[in-house]
Amino acid sequence: MGTGGHACDDAWRSHARRRGQSGPDQAGESGFGLVEVLLSLTVLLTVLVASAYLVDNIMQQAATNRAKVAATELAETWLEKMSSASLPTLQADIARDVLLTPTPVTVGGIPFSVWSHLEWADTGTSPSLCTSGNPPQVIRATMTVKWPIGQQLGETSIINPPYGAVVPGDGFLSVQIQGASAPLPPADTANLVNVAVNVTPQGGSATTYNPDQYGCVYLEEPLGTYSVSLASPAGGPTFIDWQEQLTPSQPSVSVVTAGLPAFVPAFHFDEAGTINFGPAGGTPIATGMPISISNGGNLQPSGTKVVVAAGSGTTSAQLFPYTSAYSVWYGDCTTVAGTTKEEPSSPATVTMTARGTQNVAITGLYTLSLSVSRSGGAFSAPPTATATVNDSAAPGDGCPASEPPYGLFAFAGSGSTYTDQTAVLAQNYTVKVTDPTNSSVTSVTMQVAANGVTYNGTTYPYGTPVPVTVS
Q1: Which end of the chain has fewer CB within 10 Å, C or N?
Q2: How far apart, in whole angstroms, are the C-alpha atoms of residue 37 and residue 168?
């Protein structure tokens, strides 16, 4: 009995030891399994996310490809329709962007719009009749299909119309647009083809056309006299011509020879760049300061152009993107005998690019400092002052006969004495100081030159206040 009891106790202790020894190992194995599970879940999630992205990308590509196939079929369908259209129908749409589907065509739940652009063309190697000079032989038809999110696709074909229907005795009008890299057209053909080319017969109303990707508008027109003008595409970007005009024009073009083209002088018209102006120094400039530019001998007739008129608060301008650099300076005097009076010897320079933005720090100004004292006691508020150019030689010296006054910078001080500092041009000025206490105006003359400011026979170095007394 006792022996049996001991045996049971030994068996129980042996089992307990085995359980006790295996307990930590089993716990360790359970912990390692949890880490494995977490790692497996992480890997699985990574694979699932990547797979979902891949599937989504494949589905999007498939949808895009289906849309492109539908757009191609629509373009080809309309090209077939155009190829069988009558010549009068085709002529009515020459050099125009025409919406063929006022109500969008829905394919696979996607609304498509179809636009046509027809151009007279040649069967030779030159893609543009404006440059080949040949009479037209065929019509180049481009169908552009557009659908949401800015997608579009174009198809081009050649139409050989029945030329027996061409109006006898008509001539042709050729309009060529050249860009900054003339004789090449503007580089941005996507916006070039939306430029408005307005053709107006003498005594008639204007018709708007659009150039092709080569910058050409080639029209069949009755004999007569026409004017042609250009404008930027509706909705932008802004185009500008080489003389800094936004809507350049050729006022009188005659179509005089039946069956042959009349060539309008080429327009230099490209997307404008923007220039922001600022002074080179720390002294604030007088308000209403004019700004001028030059670009070699490109600007006609004087070689310079005023891009900010005197009195304007504008601090930027849009310019033609010449490949050569602009010279920029404060002032509005044009060139006389090869010399620009207000242009410094080393003006600021800047190169423009189509649709680019440039900042320029303009040099050539001098500091006019005033110390205004009131003999009758303290000012009720700070005085104000203006400076008007007093140029007795104008306009013979290339400067305007008159222009609005410049505003001098706000005065600081207290009591009966206030001072200010303003950057101005080297000119003779009539300075008018207004006393807000009694609204009196005191006028004095000063000369701002390279050696300082001269007033009442005394020359004051730049930065030294010129004393002016008001009563």
Answers
A1: N
A2: 88
